[in-house]
Amino acid sequence: MTSRQLGFLFLAPATAFIIVLFLAPVLLTAVFAFTNMSTATGITGGAWQVNPGAMRRLALEHEEPQLAEALQVQVFAVDELGLERLIQEGQPEALIREIDAELLGQSFASRREIARALRALENRPRSTREINALASTFERSLVGNRYESEQALFDAIAISGFDLNADQEQAVAEATWTGWNWTTENFQRMVSLPDNRTILLNTVFYVFTTLIIFNTFFALVLAITTHYMPERAAGVFRSMWLLPRVLPPVLYVLMWKWLAWDTGFLSSLLGYFGVAPRNWMLHDAPSAWTVVIMINGVIGASMGMLIFASAIKAIPQPIFYASEVDGASRWQQIRHIILPQLKWPILFITTYQSLSLLTSFQEILLATDGGPGGATEVWALHAYHTALSNYAGNLSYGYGAALALVLVVIGVILSLAYLFFFDFKTLVRPPRIER
Amino acid sequence: MTITRTATRLSLATALLATTGFAAFAEDYTFRVWAGGSGPVDDYRTIAIEMAADILEREAAIRGEELTITIEGRTTFDGWDDFKQAITLASEAGDAPEIVVTSHTDIAPWSQAGIIVPVEDYVNLDAWPLNDIFPNLMGIGSFGGTVWGIPQDSESRPFFFWKEHMRAIGYTDDQIDALPAAVQNGEYTLQNVLEDAVAMQEAGIVEPGYGFYPRVSNGPDYWQFYLSFGGTIEEDGQLVFDRESMQNFYQFFADAVDAGITRQNHIGTPWDQWYAEVASGRAGMWHGGTWHYARYTGREGLDDFFNTIQFTLIPAGDENGAANTITHPLMYLITDQGDEDKHQIAAELVTIASEPRINTLHAIRSAHLSIARSQSDIDLFANDRWASQATERLLPYASAQPNNTDFGAYIDVMWSNLEATWTGRKTAEEAVADAEAELLATLGDAISIR
User: Fold this and answer.
1) Pairing outcome for strands B26-35 and B66-74
2) Opening angle at CA B108, ends B140 and B448, nearest 5
3) Which H/E stretch holds residue A184?
């Protein structure tokens, strides 16, 4: 095996992970985004069904109001066709003779009515299930039935006595299709809605405020202050800052709720100073944002702290000694030794954390759920709400995926911008000595 | 198999049955029953199915069949959204529970998706106990002319007044007793609610933000206020967005916040806190559900409900609307899991579980209303003051939300814009304009804008 082949072999597991865990979800999101997929349409396919929504489409979009009205009428007709079918099924002769004599030519407006008539027969079957099956033999309408193929739909239409031309058949097939269709409407809808602009601005505000204040600046403060602390104390201090990251999010946010609710710690404490209790988490937009940013920022700061602290540790100690001999102050050490060495860690943290903040929503979901009044609804949370949460049981997978796809696009653009801004080429350039 | 639920499949089943009959056989079935929106007192939603399984096993034994049914009930979910997400995703994975207890509004999307099968294919609607169920409730379980679900319970959503606080702002006992009638005939309106709540707060009887203390989360309750201002939700199968009614409804909540009788940050208040507060007289007026009675008098320890709290319909908002209430009955739905035999047994189980005596256990334990006429003949039900009074005062005026595939999208738009108005992020006018734009973009012809 050549070293090149060996290289590919070593890369294979990582490649497989990237395909399964990154490329496949992105591709599926892109595919879903161009569909009108929802709970009602299902994901894996569809059928043909005459239901009120389908008939409204047939009447309005396909301009067949009379046909739509006719198709919605439920009919159970005792006819020769049904009797023949009973013979084929091997039903008892006495029953068939009785149906022929008593019910042939009669028509019923519902399963309940025909079942009632069948139950009045002397030779009737003795179970509800068989009676219902008998009734179905005489069903001459399509209402509520699911047909697994277009042909089955057309057959049922023919048996029900409708004589449709090719255009009408096509219209009925299109209107009654329950599955999803390809569409670009999700994107038109996304652009046209005023709320989406607000949500986008919320997202920009949330990502950059958290990123700048906590994930980068505060992380730097933590890293630098712990750098100047005795080793053991610094270790304890850093471990404490790691706690929010290692706590399960549900527990971590619950503790914030205890802190911020109007019956919580903060309100109780401020009560002694005459401040009326309030739900600091949901009081108004500024207080909700403060809490949301702090919840995420405190988690995010710990990661930056670790990266920056280890980068500072990698700076050769003699440089610090030399600067102290030259009489440099702490601030001058930070300004002229530490910060210049942290350019690449800052690039990494900025890139990684902004992408992470862009797509993470679980803490906001648990804390404010986007409230109050949608004030803290960010794009990823909105995509989640759309795709996976609906009070009436109809989740909008397609539109939700379109919203999620926007995040993928923004993520890629942001990454490229960061690489350009931080001059990534210089980072990967070989050392001068090798040139 | 090309046609589902039509001649072929059922004929095959009949042919099979005709040849084999109900010969003695040993069958083991496991049914998972998931019930949404259920608290600790709603356990009879699944226990009723366990009781039905016992009866069905005994019936089978008498016929000489060996039938063993195992019921796995689950009632703990984190709210309706979580429950519906669980059901829909489990269905997509082909692993849904066989029986679900859920809102009737799920019937439209779930029947289109093929998640559920029509219960009318497996039951005798003319036989007891189904022919004893109120026809309007059976209608709520129907969609497009087909009966998809059997009502599991019924309820309605009253407006509540804390009597002592009403007395403190000058109402006499007679006036308080006459409130249900005054609300019903439109003499006492939502405008009076605003005025009385302000009076309570100005007199220092309740704290700021506690004069009118509404539901803390999205729910059918809020459509009642749209109806109070003359709104129509659906007409002839098409959803309706009535601009003026929606704006007046939004404005009412904005006014309540402006007047300081409702907190701007009220939405999202924890339910436990909310129940404890309304059941202890911290709030002057509020609205809830008939099942709240069980919580107030149970876990919250309210001793004398009838002398402490008055309940009425939701008052009219203006001359366009009327006092009303919404009933949101839950349904037993059979999912398309397993074969026809399994659907059949599931249907028989929910039928038996709907027998008056069994349903009454749920109704009284959880303070729900009855689903069938003869429940009023059962002592447990007839002797319960709340069940009989609430039924009489509220149910005749109750309407239901529509069964419409697109209603879920409408709910989202209504709620998000109400929230935005409530919290002051939008004016009522802006919220209605945004709602209209979103509904047009989302639903197009499926909604009529007036």
Assistant:
1) parallel
2) 90
3) none
Distance CA B78, CA B195 (A): 36
B109: nearest CA in chain A?
A: A40
Distance from C-alpha of B91 to C-alpha of B109, rounded to nearest angstrom:
13
Rounded Cα gap, residues A192 and A185, in angstroms: 10
Q: CA A111 to CA B122: how far, in whole Å?
A: 11
What is the amino acid identity at position B301? G
Q: Measure B347 CA to nearest chain A CA, in Å.
A: 10
- Is the peptide bond between A340 and the residue preceding it cis, with omega within 30 degrees of 0? no
How far, in Å, CA of B450 to CA of B448, rounded? 6
Average per-residue pLDDT for chain B:
90
CB proximity under 8 Å: B 18-77 to A: 18-19, 22
User: What DSSP line would sit under A262-302, residue for residue?
Assistant: TTSHHHHHHHTTTPPP--TTTSSHHHHHHHHHHHHHHHHHH
DSSP character string of B372-439: BGGGGGSHHHHT-HHHHHHHHHHGGGEE-----TTHHHHHHHHHHHHHHHHTTSS-HHHHHHHHHHHH
Which of B14, B85, B422 lies at the smallest CB-CB distance from A395?
Answer: B85
Q: Which residues of chain A lie closer than 8 angstroms to B5, CB-CB?
A: 136, 144-146
B179-221 residue pLDDT tens = 999 999 999 999 999 999 999 999 999 999 999 999 998 889 9
Q: How far is CA B29 from CA B32, B53, B68, B341, in A?
A: 10, 10, 6, 10
Asked if A206 and A380 touch (Cβ cutoff 8 Å), the reply is no
- DSSP type of residue A139: B
Query: Two tokens at A83?
Result: 């009797």
Query: CA dist A225 to A308, A353, B44, Å?
Result: 11, 22, 60
Closest CA to B275 of B23, B40, B108, B102: B40
Looking at residue A334, the DSSP 8-state letter turns out to be I
Terminus-to-terminus CA distance in chain A, angstroms?
31
**What confidence tier does B9 reach under pLDDT thresholds 50, 70, 90?**
low
Judge: B268–A282 Cβ closer than 8 Å, yes or no: yes
B81 contact A CB<8A:
yes
* Shortest Cα distance, chain A CAs vs residue B172, angstroms: 33
Tokens of B374: 């003869």
Q: In what order do the strands lie in the sheet with B238-241?
A: B234-235, B238-241, B447-449
CB burial string A334-355: b at 16+ within 10 A, e below: beebbeeebeebbbbbbbbbbb
The Cα–Cα gap between B352 and B359 comes to 9
Which of B207, B361, B228 shows the shortest CA–CA distance to B287?
Answer: B228
pLDDT band with cut points at 50, 70 and 90 for residue A163: confident
- How far apart CA A221 and CA A207 sit, in angstroms, is 19
* B2 contacts A391? CB cut-off 8 A: no
Given a cut of 60, is residue A379 above it in pLDDT? yes
* Residue B146 phi, psi (nearest 5): -120, 140
**Residue B252 CB: number of other CB atoms within 10 A?**
22
Please give the interface size between A and B, counted as residue pairs whose CB atoms are below 8 Å apart.
Answer: 260
Q: Do B145 and A74 count as a contact with CB atoms less than 8 A apart?
A: yes
Contacts of the segment A328-333: beta carbons below 8 A, 24+ positions apart? A330/A228
Q: Does B106 touch chain A (CB under 8 A)?
A: yes
Query: Is ipTM beyond 0.90?
Result: no
Task: Indicate the helix (H) or strand (E) that contains B447.
Answer: strand B447-449
Q: Cα-atom radius of gyration of chain B, to the nearest Å? A: 23
Output the pTM of the full model.
0.86
For residue B99, the SS3 value is strand
What's the rounded Cα separation, in Å, for the pair B343 and B123? Answer: 10
